[in-house]
Amino acid sequence: MKTTTTLFFAGALCLGVLATACGPTTPRTTLSNLPQSSVSVIDPSWEKANEIVMSSLNEGGSLAALSIPVLRAPSLESSWGKPSVETSPQGFYRLTYEDPNRPFERLLIYGSPKPFPRPIAPPKILSEEMVNGGLGTVEKTQRWQSTTVLGQTVPWYIESTGGGADGEYFSTVGIRLTGPDDRVGYYRLVIETITGQAPARFSKVGW
Questions:
Q1: Which residues contact 73 (CB under 8 A, 6 or more apart)?
Q2: In angstroms, rounded to a whole number, what is the distance separating the alpha carbons of residues 201 and 207?
Q3: What pLDDT is stored for residue 126 in this prediction?
Q4: Mean pLDDT of residues grouped by 10 in the chain (207 residues)?
Q5: How far apart are CA 27 and CA 191, in angstroms?
Q6: Number of C-alpha atoms within 13 angstroms, CB side, residue 94?
Q7: Cα–Cα distance between 170 and 151 in angstroms, integer?
Q8: Distances (CA, A) of 85 to 40, 71, 94, 120
């Protein structure tokens, strides 16, 4: 069985599972930088697209210079403050919103000028559980779940069950959206949480 590597994020998308780490400015762990033994590959094309996005992102840059409309989370911006911004010469971006009062509560928005490949199936979930009196790794299948993003029904899945220095991670598949100016972009959303905020936080995004 193949497995995946990165940090979303942390997370980007699709074009976008994480290849660098996720945090306020340096995002922490997400799907693609988990240890190779920790998660099953969904689809090589999905993984590759995410890695391309993640590897090209750098802190800062101009969101106004992007060819795609910038998807944001206005309500989180009002309560949590401005997100950290990363962009790339290829036209990708990532916004990272973090709760200043609670660790492990974040929303990451990945934007791309190109469509994300459609994952074939959600990955299997690996978690540490007691097995026959000892701690062992248990592999479980999962089904697609769904949320509503700007009127669209969007599938999402569990990226990671978290633990230690990270919360749980939840990711949508790629989303095609048309902005108020009729420009089209492609997006992936990632939630980190320890308070059960998936899928409600996915619906926080808007223009």
A1: 83, 95, 97, 107, 109, 204, 205, 206
A2: 15
A3: 76
A4: 36 36 38 39 81 93 96 97 97 98 96 92 79 78 95 94 84 97 98 95 97
A5: 12
A6: 39
A7: 20
A8: 29, 12, 6, 30
200 residue type, one letter = A
| Res 42: pLDDT | 66
Written as six digits, the tokens of 193 are: 């949480």
Confidence at residue 28, expressed as pLDDT on a 0 to 100 scale: 43
Distance CA 136, CA 120 (A): 28
Tokens of 165: 């220095």
SS (H, E, C) the chain: CCECCCCCCCCCCCCCCCCCCCCCCCCCCCHHHCCCCCCECCCHHHHHHHHHHHHHCEECCCCCCCCCCCCECHHHHHHHCCCEEEECCCCCEEEEEECCCCCCCEEEEEEECCCCCCCCCCCCEEEEEEECCEEEEEEECCCCEEEEECCEEEEEEEEECCECCECEEEEECCEEEECCCCCEEEEEEEEEECCCCCCHHHHHCEC
Encode pLDDT of 64-94 as tens digits: 999 999 999 999 999 999 999 999 999 999 9
CA-wise closest residue to 190 among 150, 162, 159, 163: 159
Q: Are 112 and 187 in contact (CB under 8 A)?
A: yes
pLDDT at 41: 54
